[in-house]
């Protein structure tokens, strides 16, 4: 064991009890100062390590310890929040509490203050791996070595990371929760002079990450994507790989299933309406053994499995305590830090698997495009979900069920909700991958075969 | 705090680093958001810690601890060296650093009205009142907010540089959204995400949110019934200065980041269409195009005294008379590229992130025309302003941008309002089509507080001096 390994291990306790105890202590400090205050505290502790490589070698290798305390107080509905990253001694925390109490006192009452979460148990979830929590920079570097070697001479770039989170929540209404989680990722590209190809894998445990397999996959994609030629823009069938599907869902979530977007009339989502193809079932479920995450949000609301779309019919929405109050329903546990202006966001979205291999999806395409990744997607109108973006890291033309040639990257301008609409989905893959877009945005998604996608420009404009 | 940073550096050197630097930081922030006459969120944040960067061979090791005590600093230094050493499993050529004369000093941004001295009640009243005004004038959703960042940092390097800085940044934003039967339309002021600078609360007062609330609400409502921007393969396009700031940021700023050009960001942020051998000769745009990266500009959001590897701020020419002549760089990237001096453009998002190449104030120098003279000189075209969407490829070459509002220009006059205006082009062709530029009186230092880059993700604050500009023969009106 190296010096680094020892230090990382001792600094990274695997038990979330300390986080819960600190949350309890902060609630106590606040109530000692203002006995009538409603108080909620989330403590996030842990470690992050990320080993980054480019042009074939590790150029940035970073690690950090986390001790984050988020405090929200309310005095007769006058509420304010503060957070502290730093020493968690009583003096520092007391100063932050005094500050946030002062802020709450001078602001006007909030007529939409939803109050605190009551006592409720969270689902029994422990997406945690002891070995990943203790992982050293050497272990990440070994996987990078394997990725680079497997690319067999192609230039490479990417990262391998490990994350450990220990979460404690306590409020003055008696709700107390503790949870923990780990995540490990390897994500990279191999490059030829004319094309890039990507490979990635995410798991709760670092041991699942096979750097050589991911590197070889990236290299194979890069080679088959090389020497691309242009394709005339227009509407084509598409087979979208999991990263693209997760990207689509991120827009449907933030601008659609988000209870706040619905409240404000900016969302397409209409519960009870058949808005999607009948083959689409979409749920939010942190208890699924195939995903990652922690089963409660920053307001202390447990996350229970929730159907958003069942057999093509919109069946549910995501809520924070505030958006739930406005809608007259219960929170679904989707409040994220700093997300008040956005609404309900954090999610473990899962698309029900189909029964095809990705190869079988391709075989079902008459004339279309196979896309590895999307890039730089931006919404043009939230209501219609029209989004523009580009393809990246490997794109090919499919004719008569066969990949016939690599093509240059294309720009698209496409309504994401229309793309998954009734009769628009022609196939769903059986295999799914985890796509981690931050600790609060986790997707378990398959490849999809869609009937139509609007490519509006080529790489040359 | 200087001593704490020095102790971290000493520990890293003792653990085997050939070079090390450390930043001790204390950061306070405040944000307040109002929606439809109600303060919806009031958040404050306090962050304190030390981050140490250690160089061994070809790799930086970085370690951060949320603590500013001596013991934590020494441990961070040791761990940074240990993390760097782990990189030798996948080593490249040793990284060099271009020379920089060791310096000591202090720098503070100018702040005429301390934003912390303005009461929360006054701040709240402002935001509540402008959102109510927007509602009264047609907004279904009226939002407003302010942000304050107050950063103190102490830097020390193993070469003897010891500097400290106090940077206060603040600004505000508001927007009005009108909801139609099948769409939403939004107008923002002063820009899509507001306006920010390294200034005090005087900036927020100068914005005059109350004086613009009714106008943007009425414009948002009017856009619901406005004609859609026509789809044209080529027309004259006039962009307001806020949209020009976005245009500069995305298609010039990121494209000229040296770490992207060297391939260090290839897997995520991407690379660049610019190739180093063409530095000094490649035509990026028309003769009117002069871009500088200048962290010394007073009050702009990308201003500072020293970057996060201790290099004093200094202006760098990026594009001169349309020719690409410079890059945004740090000491390591400059050394690898054969550039004599760092551009002083390395910064980190807090103590817990490794410093990397970031934009400073990357801006377009003004010309001699004006928005009104451009419109008067345009027979047929579209004028667009206020960014609404932005998408650009990983080489920073192919872009499609959308604006909140447009107007048709006919016979030298601004005519009907247009909704959903978009335009698309390839960067050097677009900049080559630049033929008119606003003058010094229209030069605005736009601040972008949300520039994402790096893994783990870092959010950077950048400045973009910009003026209105006209481009000939641009494709507009791309639709889904």
Written description of the protein model:
The complex is a heterodimer of chains A (461) and B (480). With 461 residues, chain A is an alpha+beta fold. Chain A has helices at 3-11, 17-33, 90-106, 130-133, 137-150, 211-224, 242-257, 259-263, 321-327, 358-363, 416-419, and strands at 38-54, 57-75, 78-85, 155-171, 176-191, 196-203, 234-240, 282-284, 306-310, 313-314, 347-351, 367-381, 386-399, 402-406, 410-415, 425-436, 441-458. Chain A is 25% helix and 38% strand. In chain A, strand 1 (38-54) and strand 2 (57-75) form a beta hairpin. In chain A, helix 2 crosses helix 3 and helix 5 (137-150) packs parallel to helix 6 (211-224). Chain A is globular, with a radius of gyration of 23 Å. Chain A starts with a helix and ends with a strand. In chain B, strand 18 and strand 19 form a beta hairpin. By secondary structure, chain B is an alpha+beta fold. In chain B, helix 3 (120-136) runs parallel beside helix 5 (210-224). Chain B starts with a helix and ends with a strand. Chains A and B meet through helix 1, strand 1, strand 2, strand 3 and helix 3 of A and strand 2, strand 3, helix 2, helix 3 and strand 5 of B.
């Amino acid at each position: 064991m190296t010096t680094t390994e020892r230090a990382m291990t001792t600094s990274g306790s695997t038990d979330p009890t300390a986080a819960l105890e600190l949350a309890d202590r902060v609630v106590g400090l606040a109530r000692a100062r203002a006995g009538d205050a409603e108080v909620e505290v989330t403590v996030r502790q842990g470690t992050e390590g990320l080993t980054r490589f480019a042009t074939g070698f590790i150029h940035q290798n970073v690690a950090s310890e986390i001790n984050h305390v988020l405090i929200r107080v309310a005095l007769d509905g006058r509420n304010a929040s503060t957070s502290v990253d730093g020493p968690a001694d009583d003096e520092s925390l007391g100063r932050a509490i005094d500050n946030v109490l002062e802020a709450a006192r001078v602001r006007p009452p909030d007529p939409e203050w939803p109050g605190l979460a009551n006592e409720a148990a969270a689902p029994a979830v422990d997406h945690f791996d002891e070995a990943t929590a203790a992982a050293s920079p050497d272990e990440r570097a070994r996987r990078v070595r394997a990725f680079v070697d497997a690319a067999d001479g192609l230039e490479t770039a990417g990262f391998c990371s490990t994350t450990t989170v220990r979460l404690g929540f306590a409020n003055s209404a008696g709700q107390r929760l503790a949870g923990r989680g780990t995540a490990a990722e390897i994500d990279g590209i191999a490059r030829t002079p004319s094309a890039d190809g990507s490979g990635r894998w995410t798991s709760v445990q670092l041991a699942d990450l096979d750097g050589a397999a991911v590197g070889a996959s990236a290299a194979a994609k890069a080679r088959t994507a090389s020497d691309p030629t242009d394709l005339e823009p227009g509407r084509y069938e598409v087979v979208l790989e999991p990263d693209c599907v997760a990207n689509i869902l991120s827009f449907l979530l933030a601008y659609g299933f988000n209870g706040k977007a619905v409240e404000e009339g900016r969302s397409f989502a209409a519960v009870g309406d058949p808005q999607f193809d009948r083959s689409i079932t979409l749920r939010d479920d942190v208890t699924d053994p195939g995903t990652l995450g922690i089963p409660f949000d920053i307001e202390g609301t447990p996350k229970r499995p929730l159907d958003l779309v069942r057999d093509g019919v919109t069946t549910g929405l995501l809520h924070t305590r505030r958006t739930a109050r406005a809608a007259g329903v219960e929170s679904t546990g989707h409040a994220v830090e700093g997300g008040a202006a956005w609404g309900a966001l954090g999610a473990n979205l899962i698309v029900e698997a189909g029964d095809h291999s990705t190869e079988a999806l391709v075989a079902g395409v008459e004339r279309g495009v196979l896309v590895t990744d999307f890039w730089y997607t931006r919404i043009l109108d939230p209501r219609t979900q029209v989004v523009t973006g580009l393809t990246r890291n490997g794109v090919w033309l499919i004719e008569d069920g066969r990949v016939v040639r690599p093509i240059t990257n294309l720009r698209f301008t496409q309504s994401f909700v229309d793309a998954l609409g009734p009769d628009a989905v022609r196939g769903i893959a059986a295999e799914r991958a985890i796509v981690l877009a931050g600790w609060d945005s986790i997707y378990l998604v398959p490849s999809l075969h869609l009937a139509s996608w609007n490519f509006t420009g080529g790489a040359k404009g | 705090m200087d001593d704490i940073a020095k102790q971290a550096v000493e520990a890293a050197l003792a653990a085997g680093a050939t070079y090390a630097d450390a930043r001790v930081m204390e950061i306070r922030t405040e944000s307040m958001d109002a929606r439809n006459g109600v303060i919806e969120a009031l958040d404050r944040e306090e962050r304190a810690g030390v981050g140490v960067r250690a160089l061994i061979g070809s790799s930086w090791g970085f370690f951060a601890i949320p603590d500013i005590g001596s013991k934590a600093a020494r441990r961070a230094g040791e761990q940074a060296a240990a993390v760097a050493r782990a990189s030798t499993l996948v080593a490249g050529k040793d990284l060099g650093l271009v020379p920089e004369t060791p310096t000591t000093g202090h720098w503070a941004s100018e702040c005429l009205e301390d934003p912390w001295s303005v009461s929360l009640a006054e701040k709240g009243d402002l935001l509540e009142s402008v959102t109510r005004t927007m509602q009264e004038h047609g907004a279904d959703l009226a939002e407003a907010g302010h942000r304050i960042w107050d950063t103190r940092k102490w830097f020390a390097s193993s070469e003897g540089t010891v500097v400290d800085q106090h940077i206060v940044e603040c600004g505000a934003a508001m927007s009005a959204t009108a909801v139609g039967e099948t769409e939403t339309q939004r107008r923002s002021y002063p820009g899509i995400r507001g306006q920010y600078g390294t200034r005090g609360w005087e900036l927020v007062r100068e914005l005059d949110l109350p004086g613009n609330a009714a106008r943007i609400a009425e414009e948002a409502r009017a856009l619901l019934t406005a004609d859609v921007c026509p789809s044209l393969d080529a027309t004259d396009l006039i962009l307001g200065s806020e949209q020009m700031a976005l245009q500069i940021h995305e298609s010039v700023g990121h494209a000229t980041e040296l770490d992207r050009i060297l391939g260090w960001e290839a897997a995520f942020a991407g690379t660049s269409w610019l190739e180093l051998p063409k530095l000094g000769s490649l035509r990026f745009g028309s003769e009117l195009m002069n871009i500088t990266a200048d962290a010394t500009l007073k009050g702009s959001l990308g201003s500072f005294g020293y970057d996060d590897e201790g290099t004093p701020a200094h202006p760098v020419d990026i594009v001169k008379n349309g020719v690409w002549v410079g890059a945004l760089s740090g000491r390591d990237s400059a050394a690898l590229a054969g550039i004599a001096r760092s551009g002083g453009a390395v910064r980190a998002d807090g103590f817990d992130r490794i410093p990397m190449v970031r934009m400073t104030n990357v801006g377009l120098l003004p010309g001699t025309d004006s928005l009104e003279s451009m419109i008067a000189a345009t027979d047929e075209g579209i004028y667009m302003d206020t960014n609404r969407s932005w998408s650009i490829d990983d080489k920073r070459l192919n872009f499609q941008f959308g604006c909140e509002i447009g107007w048709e220009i006919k016979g030298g006059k601004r005519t009907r309002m247009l909704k959903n205006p978009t335009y698309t082009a390839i960067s050097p062709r677009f900049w080559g089509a630049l033929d008119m530029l606003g003058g010094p009186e229209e030069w605005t230092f736009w601040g972008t507080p949300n520039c994402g880059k790096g893994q783990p993700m870092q959010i950077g604050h950048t400045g973009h001096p910009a003026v209105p500009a006209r481009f000939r023969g641009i494709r507009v009106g791309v639709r889904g």
